[in-house]
Amino acid sequence: MFTAIKTFSQVCTHMSIAFGLAYLLTGSLALGGLAAIIEPIINVALLPGHEKAWHAIRRRYAASRLGFAAVAGEKLSQTALHMGVAFGVMYWATGSMAFGGLLAVVEPICNVIVLPFHDRLWEKARFRLASRGAARLASL
């Protein structure tokens, strides 16, 4: 249950970043909301196929020296996919390549900066819950 709540919170954080940036770029609540909803939906739709393809590549090269390169390639490819979706959604919504390009660059950077803090807060919460559970067991 904890993992599901953390994942939901992570999705909300990601959507908030997309909304905030799109709103800052356009000044439009509608376009901000559109970016916050459509961009994650497209990513969620595309990522399973992306992961399946890269799983096959990793499995093929796991025993060779190329195993590490396959993992690095997957991460680079995933980043490019995410940036492409962010660009496409903002370009579609505004017709501006500049806004699309800016969102494609800035949004992943913001996610890379913000999400580790998010994860640290959730790990502290997990530790506190585990400590409370251990204290209850010790008192029995």
From TrEMBL:
The chain crosses the membrane at residues 20-46. InterPro entries: DUF2061_membrane (IPR018638). It holds the Pfam family DUF2061. Residues 5-55, 76-123 form the DUF2061 domain. Keywords: Membrane, Transmembrane, Transmembrane helix. It comes from the Bacteria. This is DUF2061 domain-containing protein.
